[in-house]
Write a structure and sequence with these properties.
Layout: E1 2-13, E2 16-27, E3 31-35, H1 42-50, E4 57-62, E5 65-66, E6 77-80, H2 92-102, H3 107-120, H4 136-149, E7 154-158, H5 166-183, E8 186-191, H6 194-200, E9 203-208, E10 211-216, H7 218-223, H8 228-233, E11 238-246, E12 251-253, E13 261-262, E14 275-280, E15 286-289, E16 298-307, E17 311-318, E18 321-328, E19 340-344, E20 351-354
Parallel strand pairs: 3-8, 3-9, 6-7, 7-8
Antiparallel strand pairs: 1-2, 1-4, 4-5, 9-10, 11-12, 11-14, 12-13, 14-20, 15-19, 16-17, 16-19, 17-18
Helix pairs in contact: 2-3, 2-4, 3-4, 4-5
GO molecular function: ATP binding; ATP hydrolysis activity; transmembrane transporter activity
Pfam family, one: TOBE_2
Protein name: Polyamine-transporting ATPase
């Protein structure tokens, strides 16, 4: 059974449309991320779900109950914001207990629930600290515990990690996912960071200009981007423009590239001449010295090499184009700037998207 069901949601601010008609369903216990660039409507949608903002049209149904006109306080949702929103004059424990006081849960039951939550977020014994005595990451853990204290049906997270340093951010990201999985709470998570979205989500909703561009698992979004926008927003890739030359054989022609490319299977739904964008992910291409060239490889020249730790990113000139390849460790040591090399593009590395721009 679906837990949270949004249908035909729209929102405009004056004459500017923030959300076009939009449908989205979250299954029970699922973590779904709203991902997209600044201004695409993520926060607007989250605020509509929370009840802070009324949609112009549409319906919000949670577990069969229509919430569209229910005030935020009565929606049974917990929320964590980007900036630490703890009450500075209350201790961490009092902050977490705040929602329970409002709901008149008292005595031992309250204390036990607060203690359990401090265990859950990995800060046992920190109940007596004031927010000013906690790091940013710890404050966000407390904010998470506070949101969960009322045992909401849905957890809403609005860029909860964006104010934190890189390392704290990664730790807390994994921690949020662990807590979410342990509690099994249906969660909607807003971020503009694609790596974060891929790492944390059951499904990702990629938004663009108030529309949903694609919904899918992280692997689907990464491997089968539905539009040029999704392909360019997620991961890094070299994008090329071309045309379908032989749809039955999966062949595409890229002007300025010496060899045709093949996806290795029929391009269904395409006809010869259809304009397409072709995306090549750096980690899916293979580069070797010119002496190891195999039939079908492209002759390329090494133009740039960037050591990135786990991989070295090599840019090569291929005909009129520049393509990036990631090489593991020692593979890159055999190459140098200006060297002739052989580039192999396996069919499964050729991602073809209809050019809709
Ligand atoms: P960000 O990542 O920058 O927060 P976002 O994807 O969350 O962006 P929204 O904040 O939902 O985007 O904004 C969507 C669109 O609506 C933007 O064009 C924004 O300028 C506009 N907008 C948001 N709030 C208001 C408002 N109160 N009045 C007028 N326009 C608004």
């Amino acid at each position: 059974m679906s837990e949270l069901h949004l249908s035909n949601i729209t929102k405009s601010y004056g004459s500017s449309v923030a959300l076009h008609p939009l449908d989205l369903t979250l299954e029970r216990g699922e973590l779904v991320t709203l991902l997209g660039p600044s201004g695409c409507g993520k926060t607007t949608l989250l605020r509509i779900v929370a009840g802070f903002l009324a949609p112009d049209t549409g319906k919000i149904v949670l577990g069969g109950r229509d919430l569209t006109r229910v005030p935020a306080r009565q929606r049974d949702m917990g929320m964590v914001f980007q900036a630490y929103s703890l009450f500075p004059n209350l201790t961490a424990g009092e902050n977490v207990a705040f929602g329970l006081d409002v709901r008149r849960l008292g005595g031992d039951e309250k204390k036990q629930r607060v203690d359990e939550l401090f265990e859950l977020i990995g800060l046992p014994g920190m109940q007596g600290r004031y927010p000013a005595q906690l790091s940013g990451g710890q404050q966000q853990r407390i904010a998470l515990a506070r949101a969960l204290a009322i045992r909401p049906q849905v957890l809403l997270l609005d860029e909860p990690l964006s104010a934190l340093d890189a390392q704290v951010r990664l730790n807390l990201r994994d921690e949020i996912r662990r807590v979410q999985q342990e509690t099994g709470i249906t969660t909607l998570f807003v971020t503009h960071d694609q790596e974060e979205a891929l790492a944390i989500s059951d499904r990702v909703v990629v938004m663009q200009g108030g529309l949903i561009a694609q919904v899918g698992t992280p692997a689907e979004i990464y491997r089968q981007p539905a539009t040029p926008f999704v392909a360019e927003f997620i991961g890094s890739s070299s994008g090329l423009s071309g045309q379908v030359s032989d749809p039955a054989r999966g062949a595409v022609h890229v002007p300025g590239l010496n060899e045709p490319l093949s996806v290795g299977r029929p391009l269904t739904g395409f006809v010869a001449g259809d304009p397409v964008r072709i995306y090549l992910r750096p980690e899916e291409l293979r580069l070797s010295g010119a002496e190891a060239r195999l039939p079908g490889d492209l002759d390329v020249l090494v133009r740039q090499m960037r050591f990135m730790g786990a991989v070295t990113r090599v840019s090569v000139g291929a005909g009129e184009h520049e393509l990036d390849i990631d090489l593991q460790g020692a593979q890159a040591e055999r190459l140098h700037l200006g060297a002739a090399a052989a580039l192999s593009i396996p069919p499964q590395a050729v991602h073809v998207v209809r050019d809709v721009r």
